Inverse folding.
C-alpha cells in the first residue's frame, strides 16, 4: 500500500512537471533562442 | 515570427534532412531489441516483479529513443526543448528503474520501502527544475540543440546516473558475496547492464560537453549488447523459466536487420524485394520457433522420464537388496541344515539319501553365492564396498582357490593344472578375501563352467612390473560380440546360458571392479567360438593405494 501511494505521488509529480514544462516550452515559449556560429 | 532551425519541417514527425540515416537504424534496432525482449519476458512471467521492472525500464528507454528521433527531425525550437526536457526525465526514470530491476534480479526480493523513497527523491530536483530555465535555459537554433546549464545539468542528471551505476555495481558485489553459487549469472547480468549504462550515459555526457550529438547515437548500441547478455543469462540460468528465447531473439534480430533495409531502399522494386524477403523470413521464422519449441518439450519430457526412471531404479535396487538378503538368509540356513545332515550331526544318513542331501547342500551354497554376487555387484556400483588392505601371497591364494575348485573340475573330467614362476615373491598389498573368492575363483569357476572337455591351465608369474594371473581353457570360446558384454553388469555371452544355466552375469563384473580397485587390469582373449579362452589379470608389483 505504501509503495502504491509512493508511485501515485511520483506519477502526479511527473505529470505536473511535464505539464509545466509543456506550458513553458510550447505554450509560452519561455526560453532563450541563440544562434551560434555555423556554416549552415 | 519565431526562429526555426535551418532545415525543413519534419514529415510524419520523424523524417527530415537533419536526421542522419544511421540514426533510424541505431534507434530502431535498440527499441526493437528492448521491446521484443521485454514483451517475451512479460508474456512468460507476468507475475515476476523483476520482469515488470524490466518492462518499465525498457518502456522508458524506448520512449527516450523515439523522442530522440522526433527531436532530430523537428526544426521547431519549442518542440525540441520540450522533447529534450522529457528525455532528461526519462533518462532518470530509466536509471532508477534499472537499479530497482537490478536489485530485484540479484537479491531476488523487493527493495525496502525506504530505498524506494530514496530513489524517488533522486528524481525530485529534476522534476522541480525541469519547467524552469535553470536546467535548460534555451535553444541554439543553428542546430536545434538545447542550451544546457552545465553544473546543475551535470549534478542532477549525469551525476545521479553515475551514482546509480556505482550502486548497481555495489549491489552486484553484495549479491555475489551473499549468493556465491550465482556468481556467474550475476557477473554476466551486471556486465551487460553496465556496458549498456556506460555506453548510454557516456554518449550523452560527451554530447553535452562537445555539443556533438552524433556520438550519443553510438551509445544506443549498448542496448542490444545488454539484451544479448541478459538473454544469455536468462536462458542459461533458466531465470523466469525462459527456454526458447535464443531462437526467438535470433529470428527477431534477423527480421530487424532485413526490415531495416526498407529504410534504405530508394526504388520501389527494392522496397518490394525487402518486404517480400521479410515476409518470407518471418513465416520461416515462425516454423523455426515452433520446431525448437517442440524439441524443447520433447527434451523436457525425456528428462522427466529419466528422472522417474532413476527414482524407480533406486526403489527397485532397495527392493532387490531386501529380497536378496532374505533369500540369502534362507539359503544359508538351508545349507547349514544340509551340512549337519551330511556330517552326521543328526545320525548316520541312509546311503540312498546321502547323495540327495549332498546335492541339496551344494545347490544351497551355489544359490547363496549367486545372491551374494548380485548384492556385491550392486554395492560396488553404489560405491558401498570396502576393501581391507594387507600384504598377502598371491601364489598361496591361487593355490587355495584351485584346491577348492578342483573337485568341480574333476567331476566334469577336466584337467586343472597350476604353474607359478620360480623364485619370485608374489607378495601383494590388497584384499586377499576378495581377490581369492571374487577374482581368482570367479575366473576359474567360469572356465570350469564353460569348458565341456579338455583342460584348464592356471598360471601365475611376474612379468616386469606386473603380476600376471591367467586361466587358459579349452572351452566354448568367446566371440568378438560377447567380449564387449563380458565384464558388464549382468552381461552374458549370447549362448552362455545354454551352457551354464546358473549364470547371473555378475561374476566377471565383480571381478573387474575388484581388480581395478587394486590398480590392476582384467581382460579376456579368445580366437573365437569353440577355440577356448584365456582370462588374464594383471596387478602392479609395487604396492598400490587400495580404496578403503
Amino acid at each position: 500500500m505504501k509503495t502504491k501511494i509512493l508511485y501515485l505521488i511520483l506519477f502526479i509529480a511527473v505529470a505536473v512537471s511535464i505539464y509545466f514544462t509543456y506550458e513553458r516550452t510550447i505554450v509560452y515559449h519561455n526560453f532563450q533562442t541563440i544562434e551560434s556560429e555555423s556554416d549552415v | 515570427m519565431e526562429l526555426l532551425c535551418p532545415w525543413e519541417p519534419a514529415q510524419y514527425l520523424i523524417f527530415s534532412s537533419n536526421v542522419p540515416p544511421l540514426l533510424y537504424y541505431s534507434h530502431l534496432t535498440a527499441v526493437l531489441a528492448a521491446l521484443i525482449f521485454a514483451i517475451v519476458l512479460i508474456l512468460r512471467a507476468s507475475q515476476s516483479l523483476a520482469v515488470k521492472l524490466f518492462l518499465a525500464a525498457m518502456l522508458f528507454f524506448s520512449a527516450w529513443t523515439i523522442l530522440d528521433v522526433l527531436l532530430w527531425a523537428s526544426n521547431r525550437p519549442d518542440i525540441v526543448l520540450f522533447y529534450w526536457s522529457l528525455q532528461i526525465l526519462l533518462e532518470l526514470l530509466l536509471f532508477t528503474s534499472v537499479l530497482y530491476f537490478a536489485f530485484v534480479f540479484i537479491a531476488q526480493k523487493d527493495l525496502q520501502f525506504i530505498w524506494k523513497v530514496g530513489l524517488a527523491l533522486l528524481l525530485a530536483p529534476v522534476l522541480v527544475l525541469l519547467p524552469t530555465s535553470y536546467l535548460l535555459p534555451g535553444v541554439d537554433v543553428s542546430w536545434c540543440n538545447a542550451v544546457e546549464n552545465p553544473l546543475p545539468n551535470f549534478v542532477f542528471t549525469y551525476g545521479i546516473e553515475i551514482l546509480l551505476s556505482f550502486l548497481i555495481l555495489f549491489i552486484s558485489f553484495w549479491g555475489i558475496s551473499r549468493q556465491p553459487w550465482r556468481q556467474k549469472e550475476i557477473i554476466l547480468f551486471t556486465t551487460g547492464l553496465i556496458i549498456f549504462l556506460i555506453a548510454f550515459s557516456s554518449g550523452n555526457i560527451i554530447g553535452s560537453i562537445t555539443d556533438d550529438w552524433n556520438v550519443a547515437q553510438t551509445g544506443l548500441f549498448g542496448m542490444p549488447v545488454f539484451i544479448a547478455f541478459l538473454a544469455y543469462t536468462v536462458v542459461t540460468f533458466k531465470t523466469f523459466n525462459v527456454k526458447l528465447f535464443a531462437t526467438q531473439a535470433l529470428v527477431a534480430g534477423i527480421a530487424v536487420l532485413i526490415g531495416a533495409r526498407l529504410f534504405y531502399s530508394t526504388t520501389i522494386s527494392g522496397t518490394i524485394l525487402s518486404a517480400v524477403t521479410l515476409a518470407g523470413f518471418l513465416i520461416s521464422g515462425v516454423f523455426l520457433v515452433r520446431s525448437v519449441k517442440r524439441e524443447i518439450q520433447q527434451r523436457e519430457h525425456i528428462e522427466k522420464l529419466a528422472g522417474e526412471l532413476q527414482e524407480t531404479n533406486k526403489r527397485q535396487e532397495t527392493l532387490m537388496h531386501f529380497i536378496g538378503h532374505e533369500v540369502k538368509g534362507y539359503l544359508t540356513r538351508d545349507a547349514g541344515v544340509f551340512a549337519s545332515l551330511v556330517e552326521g550331526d543328526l545320525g548316520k544318513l541312509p546311503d540312498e539319501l546321502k547323495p540327495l542331501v549332498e546335492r541339496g547342500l551344494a545347490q544351497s551354497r551355489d544359490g547363496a553365492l549367486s545372491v551374494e554376487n548380485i548384492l556385491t555387484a550392486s554395492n560396488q556400483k553404489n560405491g558401498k564396498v570396502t576393501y581391507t588392505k594387507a600384504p598377502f601371497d598371491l601364489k598361496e591364494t591361487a593355490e587355495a582357490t584351485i584346491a577348492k575348485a578342483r573337485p568341480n573340475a574333476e567331476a566334469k573330467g577336466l584337467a586343472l593344472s597350476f604353474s607359478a614362476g620360480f623364485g619370485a615373491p608374489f607378495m601383494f598389498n590388497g584384499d586377499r578375501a576378495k581377490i581369492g573368492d571374487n577374482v581368482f575363483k570367479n575366473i576359474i569357476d567360469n572356465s570350469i563352467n564353460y569348458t565341456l572337455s579338455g583342460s584348464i591351465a592356471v598360471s601365475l608369474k611376474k612379468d616386469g612390473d606386473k603380476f600376471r594371473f591367467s586361466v587358459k581353457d579349452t572351452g566354448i570360446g568367446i566371440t568378438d560380440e560377447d567380449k564387449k558384454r563380458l565384464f558388464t553388469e549382468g552381461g552374458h555371452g549370447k549362448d552362455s546360458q545354454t551352457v551354464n544355466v546358473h549364470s547371473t552375469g555378475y561374476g566377471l563384473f565383480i571381478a573387474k571392479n575388484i581388480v581395478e580397485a587394486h590398480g590392476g587390469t582384467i581382460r579376456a582373449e579368445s580366437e573365437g567360438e569353440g577355440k577356448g579362452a584365456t582370462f588374464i589379470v594383471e596387478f602392479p608389483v609395487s604396492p598400490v593405494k587400495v580404496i578403503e
User: Anything to note?
Assistant: The longest helix of chain B spans residues 268-342. Chain B has a mean pLDDT of 85.
